[in-house]
Each structure stands twice: as structure tokens, then as C-alpha cells.
Amino acid sequence: MTPPEPKSIHFKVGLARAALGFERVWSALLWPAIVGASGTALLLSGVLHEIPYWLRLAGLGLFGMVFVWSLKALAKVIWPTRQEAMRRVEIKTGLGHRPVSGYEDRLADGTDPLRQAIWEEHKFRQLKTLGNLRAGTPQSAWRDLDPRSLRVPAVLALVAAIFLGPGDPGKAFTQPGAPASATNAQTLALDAWLKPPAYTMRPPVLLTSPAMTKRLATEPDIVAPDKSVLSVRMTGAKAPHIMFLNLADSGAGESEVAGLVARTKSDDNQFQAEVTMTRPAVVRITDGDQEIANWRISLIRDAPPAIEVTKTPEGDASGTLSVSWKATDDYGVTSIASDLYLSDQQDGGIGFSSNGIFRFDPPQLAMTLRSSSSKEETGTAKASLAEHPWAGFMMDLTLTAKDAGGNAADSTPV
Description:
The chain is an alpha+beta fold. The protein folds into 3 domains: 7-181, no CATH class; 189-300, Immunoglobulin-like; 306-410, Immunoglobulin-like (Sandwich). It has helices at residues 7-28, 30-45, 53-70, 72-75, 82-93, 113-129, 142-145, 151-164, 169-174, 180-183, 210-216; strands spanning 189-195, 205-206, 221-225, 228-235, 240-245, 263-267, 270-277, 281-287, 290-300, 306-309, 314-315, 320-342, 345-346, 349-350, 374-384, 395-403, 408-410.
């Protein structure tokens, strides 16, 4: 009678048999996986909906046949035998002379009780000497079965289609052969925002936000700084157009604002427009005959700066001229300058006895700003006239202030 097989050997043989079976099934799944990933990527990418309907159906049918053909290897999978599992244990453990698989060997002549007893004792002692048997982890053979690595681009295409594909993935599977009008109709999307000039320090205004839509229901006018840039981006429109109408017009007498022309670009079903708002207008966005949106945009004009001499210019014993000044602007003064010139009225009367004095450049007042964009600046400018050829002559002074918008203003001459 054959002695019972130790439980540890029975367990390891079972693991080895499962590992062998998994390897065979896994190998048979290579081509179904490649074909399935490629077909799924094609469905999710939206490419099928860009081709004619009949060609789409033909392509789906072809992929179906290829997928069924790829399953033939899976149908031929044979579950490993117990002897194959035993041999795997021997190979993974590094055993020679088949101590595991040879356990079930039989004597050619088993009629002699003494020889049979000696044989059974030999096998039993061999099994008792076996130590750490290993069934081995399942190994993938895909690299050998796919030497061109076709599985890699198939997986990459699938991942890209999942995250970047258009439309609803569910519809791509449930309606893969539906006409383009049913599955590829793109939802029209509109984004628009106003970006004030940087020097105003104001944030952009998103015209299509829910908060703005709610506000416009009660306050239809949008007020923005002059020279704000309006940007529009629209997708899914067939015949997009942007126009600028006069705020004062209404009804059938609407007229377009002269001087407002948007820079537009259309590609890949996306329409973009950008314009610098230098005039108030009603901005209307249309798609063919359908109005998509309109906004009434009023502008806050950038007021020019103001500058004045706050005290009568004074001179001291050293010949230094001091001028106190004040400059203001709605968004900030960026620079100030002085202009000293000889007065027509001199102590001896009007005019000069010779024109030699005009050969010399006028003296310069040192004028600086504490901040590059302060809304209000005050200071005292000084110039040394002791050694200047104009010393002792009557002079007039004008101060000039500039802002970031390019506006300039002069003070009253003193």
C-alpha cells in the first residue's frame, strides 16, 4: 500500500498547478487584450464619428471578427496535469532525480511483497527529506509572444482616449454605430472675460460666470476701465460672429460702433476673439441667426493726472531754488518733470538785450517719486542756480505729470 502523501507536498503541487494554469490563460489573453484595447480606444476617441456611417459599421464589424479570431488561443487552453505541476515544483525548487513526480511511479513487477515494501520505504524516506518546496509565482510570457511590443501603443491609446476623448464614454459603447448627428453633436460652450489694464490693479471679470449672470439680471450694465481687453472663446458653434453695437441704439435701428474690430481666429471647431475696448458698446455673440450672449459694457475713462505748485518758489542765500509740488491721478502718477524757461518780463523790461543767454541749457530741478504708481504724491524739488548763467534772470516754471495710461498734464506756469 502506498503511504499517504504529506500535506505540504499536496498543497505545493496544487499551487504549482494553479500557477501553470494562470500562465496558460494569461498567454492566451494577449491578442484579445491588444485587439480589445485598440477597439475601445477607437470608440472613445471619437474617430469613428468623423467617417461615413457605412464605413463606421464596416470597421466595427471588422474589429468584431478580429476579436473573435483572437479568442481561439483561449479556447485551446488545456488545464495542466498533476504530473506537470509536480515537475514544476521540482524545477522551481531545484531538485534532481524527480523526487516529487517520481512519487507516483510503480514497479514493473509489483507481485513480490518484499521488493514492493522496499520501494515504498524508499519513496517515503525521499519525501521526508524534502524541505522548502516552491511552486513559483506565475510568469508572463507576453514579452516573448509580442516581440514588437504592440501591447504598449494599444494601452497608451486606450489611456489617452479615456482621459482626452470627447463626449460621453457611455454613449460611445451603447451607440457605437449611431449616426454622427446623434452621438457627435457637441454642446456649445462660451467663455468670455474682461481684463482691465495692468496699471489699474483690477482683477479680470468673468462675464460667463454664474455670479455675473445672476447680477446682470438686475444690473444689465458692466462697467470696466478704458482699454480693457475683451476675450471670447466659443466651441461647438457652426457660424460664430461677434459684433459691437452702440449703447444708445435699440430696436431695428441698431448700428455698429466704429473703431471696434475684434481679432478673431477659428480652428478645430473653436472660435476665439479679442478686442481692446476703447468705446462703450453692446457686445453681441451669435451663431448664425441665433444670439448666444450679449453684454452692455460701459467704460471708465482714464482721467489725466493733475499737478500743481503748492507754494511760491523760494531761493536761499546759496542760490538754491526750492519748488513744492503736488501730483494726483486716478490710477497713479508714473513720472513728473519740470520745465524752466526764461520769462519775457525781466527787471529791465520786456525782452533781452542780446540772445547769448539762450545758448545755455536751462537748469534742471531734481524731481523724484516715492512710489512708481502712487495716486497722490507731494515733494519739494531743488536746483542750484548759483553758478548757472541764468542766475539773476526772471524764469517761468511749468511741471508735467504722466500716468501709466499715457495721459499727461501741465501745471499752471509760475
